[in-house]
């Protein structure tokens, strides 16, 4: 009897508060229905079944429906998560395809960047060679002190593209501007130093390189390197600006600049060497002007991107250490390559004028064939920092 009275009291309590119980049940079911609701329901079920209260059966049905609804919601949530995982996986595959297309679009124009230098040297060789075999032979040591030596400073290009690409991956445009400014300053300093070294020590270096047997080519070679030496500052600054654009994944801007430079060089060679008969001096002037124009267009390309291409900043000791930490291995690698190809020219020079003239033609053809893999190297330098350090 007391059990039935207790059940009736519970039943009365349930009727009085059943408008609130579902609210509490919903709250508890969403948190942890098995830990909070089930024990209470089991106690009530044992009491109410003996008295078979209809209101409790309704409450039980509501709780059962809510538990089933919660279970179905959890299952639907799991299915949605599985669908989302499938979508992400598909978009990742699509992203890889898009990246492949982007790499092809970048490396394709970059081929022209690496071909422009050997192509201009080949134009000089072809035009000068039609006028004089002695001047053609003089291009051998002349290009060693102009073109080969310039590759030593390739570390500036490597450092620029790496630092710019890394800062852009971190979305720090102020740091990009600062790095461009300090690297342009370094390019300008090294260019001025090379200009004075060419002025002061050019004739002595050529005499030591060619030897006494080839005295007839020293004057022509010296004329060539003195004129080309005027472009040293513009050349290195242009390389920094070009590498900054490449670090921004822009290969079309530098390609346009070098295409204009190649046209200027070709037209200048024909006009100055063939029409006005300036010979090797005309070829040097045409190349020098084309390099200055290319450097200016490279800097203007940076200005069009919103950066200050003509701004320079003096680097701190830590910044110099960072640059040379990146560029040190590249500097040693390029030094070894320059030494190797310079020795080839040195030994060819010792074999006479005709031999060095023939060697000059063949080495320029070789250079055109040797640079086809360089665009992929530049692609890695421009794209890998985003994958390694990117905010996404």
TrEMBL record:
Keywords: Membrane, Transmembrane, Transmembrane helix. The chain crosses the membrane at residues 181-203, 223-241, 253-272, 278-299, 320-344. It is found in: Membrane. Residues 62-82 are annotated as: Disordered. It holds the Pfam family MatE. One of its GO terms (cellular component) is membrane. PANTHER family: PROTEIN DETOXIFICATION (PTHR42893:SF29), PROTEIN DETOXIFICATION 44, CHLOROPLASTIC-RELATED (PTHR42893). Belongs to the multi antimicrobial extrusion (MATE) (TC 2.A.66.1) family. This is Protein DETOXIFICATION. It comes from Solanum stoloniferum.
């Amino acid at each position: 009897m007391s059990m039935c009275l207790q059940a009736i009291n519970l039943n009365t309590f349930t009727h009085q508060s059943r408008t609130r119980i579902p609210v509490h049940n919903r709250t508890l079911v969403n948190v942890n229905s098995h830990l909070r609701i089930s024990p209470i329901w089991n106690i009530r079920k044992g009491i109410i079944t003996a008295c078979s209260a209809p209101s409790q059966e309704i409450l039980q049905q509501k709780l059962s429906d809510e538990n089933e609804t919660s279970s179905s919601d959890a299952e639907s949530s799991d299915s949605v998560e599985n669908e989302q995982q499938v979508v992400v996986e598909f978009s990742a595959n699509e992203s890889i395809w898009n990246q492949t297309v982007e790499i092809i679009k970048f490396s394709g124009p970059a081929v022209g960047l690496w071909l422009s230098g050997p192509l201009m040297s080949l134009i000089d060789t072809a035009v000068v060679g039609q006028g004089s075999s002695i001047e053609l032979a003089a291009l051998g040591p002349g290009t060693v002190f102009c073109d080969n030596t310039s590759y030593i400073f390739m570390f500036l290009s490597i450092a620029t593209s790496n630092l710019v690409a890394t800062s852009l991956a971190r979305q720090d445009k102020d740091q990009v501007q600062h790095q461009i400014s300090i690297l342009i300053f370094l390019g300008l300093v090294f260019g001025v130093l090379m200009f004075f070294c060419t002025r002061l020590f050019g004739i002595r270096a050529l005499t030591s390189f060619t030897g006494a047997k080839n005295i007839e080519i020293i004057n022509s070679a010296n004329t060539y390197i003195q004129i080309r030496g005027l472009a040293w500052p513009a050349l290195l600054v242009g390389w920094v600006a070009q590498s900054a654009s490449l670090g921004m994944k822009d290969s079309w801007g530098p390609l346009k600049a070098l295409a204009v430079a190649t046209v200027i060089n070709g037209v200048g060679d024909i006009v100055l060497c063939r029409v006005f008969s300036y010979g090797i001096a005309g070829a040097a002037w045409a190349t020098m002007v084309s390099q200055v124009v290319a450097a200016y267009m490279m800097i203007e390309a940076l200005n069009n991107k919103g950066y200050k291409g003509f701004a320079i900043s003096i680097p701190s000791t830590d910044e110099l250490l960072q640059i040379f930490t990146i560029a040190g291995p590249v500097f040693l690698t390029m030094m070894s390559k320059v030494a190797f190809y310079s020795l080839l020219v040195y030994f060819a020079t010792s074999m006479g004028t005709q031999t060095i003239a023939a060697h000059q033609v063949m080495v320029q053809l070789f250079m055109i064939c040797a640079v086809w893999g360089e665009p992929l190297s530049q692609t890695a330098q421009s794209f890998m920092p985003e994958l390694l350090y990117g905010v996404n």
